[in-house]
Design brief:
It is built from 7 helices and 12 strands. It is an alpha/beta fold and 264 residues long.
Length: 264
């Protein structure tokens, strides 16, 4: 499977962001990508106005997503991204959507909200309550996570036990002391401990680190970007996945969850 990673800085104007997304979709399709992954919260952002994600939220049939859905019609490339949609309680959902051939084929509402490092995502965002679905892309089962989810290994493990070969992670990883190190360690750990591919795409710009990367099932970074806007590609290989799970059978060797492991 050929994966495209589209890293960019999100504008406060949704019209500018949709044009960026449409351009990345067209370029990725030209390069023969099966999957394009974009960052988290790409509808609108302003570092001076943290409430913008709420004020700018649109339903999935609104003008932002509708233009991307229309642009996907007539081909089999899958595009994944996170956008904010209105929630019934007056806040917004942070929704990771998958688009293919003129349809939204999956939706995942972010489970773990970023109430950490002096941030409070839950002020404007309502958490989801459902385990993300798997999405089939070019013969691979793709599991979905969003940004802060990567700090919770039980979600990645659940998705892999459900059958995921690849974990996709749109993110807007905030800059700060040790934060780039946290990103690299966590993305690599989720890949290695689950013998799965990780496709992690971060927003760049004044607030966020960028540093998008693809890590293979043995913890090797096979493609990565720095802090600037970028579109780059990686090939995911079923043989590499099978090899990793043969030489490092952690999924078969695991003991937790077995009935004889009880504390009684």
């Amino acid at each position: 499977m050929k994966v495209a990673l589209g890293q960019f800085a999100v504008s406060r104007e949704w019209e500018a962001n949709v044009e960026t997304c449409l351009s990345l979709m067209a370029k990725s399709l030209e390069e023969g990508a099966d999957l394009l992954v974009l960052p988290e919260g790409i509808l609108a952002r302003d570092i001076t106005d943290p409430d913008l994600v709420l004020k700018a939220a649109q339903p999935l049939d609104g003008p932002f997503v509708s233009q991307l859905v229309a642009a996907s019609r007539g081909n089999q490339m899958t595009t994944m991204m996170s956008v904010h949609t209105p929630a019934p309680d007056g806040r917004a959902f942070n929704v990771l959507i998958s688009i293919r051939n003129g349809e939204i084929i999956s939706e995942y509402r972010k489970l773990h909200l970023y109430d950490a490092f002096s941030s409070q995502e839950s002020k404007n965002v309502t958490p989801g309550s459902d385990v993300p679905p798997l999405v089939e892309v070019a013969g691979f089962n793709v599991g979905l996570m969003t940004c802060y989810d990567v700090r919770f290994p039980e979600l990645a493990r659940r998705l892999v036990l459900d059958g995921a070969d690849v974990l996709v992670l749109p993110a807007a990883w905030v800059k700060g002391p040790l934060k780039e190190m946290h990103w690299e360690v966590l993305v690599t750990a989720r890949a290695l401990e689950n013998t799965t591919y990780m496709v992690a795409v971060g927003e760049c710009g004044e607030r966020n680190i960028g540093n998008s990367m693809v890590v293979d099932p043995l913890g090797v970074a096979i493609a990565r970007a720095a802090e600037a806007p970028a579109l780059f590609f990686a090939e995911l290989d079923k043989d590499r996945l099978a090899h990793a799970r043969k030489v490092l059978p952690v999924l078969a060797n695991r003991r937790f969850g077995l009935p004889q492991l009880r504390n009684d």
